[in-house]
Amino acid sequence: MRNSTKLMILAGISIIFILLSAFYDIKGGFDYAFPRRMIKITAMVVTGIAIAYSTVMFQTITHNRILTPSVMGLDSMYQVVQTLIYFFAGSMSVWVLNKYLNFGTAILAMVLFALILYRFLFRADKHPIYLLLLIGMVLGTLLGSLVSFLQVLIDPVEYLSLQSRLFATFTNVKADLLYISIGILILSFIYGYLIMDKLDVMSLGRENAINLGINYDRMVMNVLILSSVLIATSTALVGPILFLGLIVANLSYQYLVTYKHSVLILGASLISIIALVGGQFFVEHILELRTTLSVIINFIGGIYFIYLLLKESRAAG
Q1: pLDDT tens digits, residue range 133-175?
Q2: From its phi and psi, is residue 105 left (phi > 0), alpha (psi between -120 and 50) or beta?
Q3: How far apart are CA 138 and CA 155, in angstroms?
Q4: CA atoms of 260 and 119, how far apart (whole Å)
Q5: Which residue in 15, 14, 5 sits closest to 272, CA to CA?
Q6: DSSP class of residue 165?
Q7: Residue 246: how many CB atoms within 10 A of its CB?
Q8: Is the full-model pTM beyond 0.90?
C-alpha cells in the first residue's frame, strides 16, 4: 500500500472522530454547545500536531526513537513553574489570574530549560544515548520531587487549584490562548517547511550531513529551539501529556516506512489527532469521564516505552 493511501486512511479516521466529537449526542442549545465543542476539538488538534511535529524533529537530531522532549524533563519543568507560582504568589496573584502572563511565563521557562539542557547534552554527539536518557529521567524525577515537596507545604485550597493545571485537560481551554497557540504553530510550520529537506539529510548522521553541505551544529540548535517552542506551547495550553509524542512518532515510523520527514510528520500528526480526539470521545461517552485521557495515554505510553527500551537493548546486544 502506498504512503499516500495510508495517509488518506489516517485522514479519514481523523475526520470521522472530529465529526463524532462535534455532533454526537449534542442536545439542548446547539448554538451554545457546538462552539465550545469546536474550541475543545481545535485545542486537541493543535496539541496533537505540535507534539507530533516536535517529537519527530527531536528524534531526528538525536538519532534515537526513544528520546522525546517530554521524556527529557520538559513537562516536569512546566509543573515546577506552576507550583512555584502558586507557592510564592498564590492562586489570586496576577501570575495566575492573568492567563497571558501565566501562558508566556510557562513557555519561556520551558524553552530556557530546554536550551540549557540541550547545550550541555547534545554537543557534538559525544554522549551515549542511554546516558542522555538516564540524565533526562533523573532530571524529571528531581523536578517531580521538588514539585511534591512544595505541594506538601501549600495551603490545601491552593493545592486543589494547582492540580487543575498539572494534568492535561481539554475542557477548560481559553479561546484567546488557543488563537495564540495557533499563531505560534503556523509560524513554526513555515520555518519547519523551509528546513524539511535538511532534516531528511540530517537523518543520515552528522558526518554525512556535513559532507552534503549542512551546517549541522547550527541546524541542531535551530531544530531544538523549534521543538522546544512547539512542546512548550502545547503543554502550556492544555497541560503535560508525557508519552503521546513517543507513541505517535514510533507508530508513524512503523506505518509509513520512509525517510521523508514531510510524510512522517504528517502521519504522526494524524495519528496524534486520532489518539486525542478519538480518545477524548471514548473517555466522555463510553467511560463517562470516570478517568482522564492523559492517564490512559500515559499508561499505554509507559508500557510502550518499556517495550521500546527492551527492543533497543536486544538490538544493541
Answers
A1: 677 778 878 888 888 888 888 888 888 888 777 777 777 777 8
A2: alpha
A3: 28
A4: 27
A5: 14
A6: H
A7: 24
A8: no
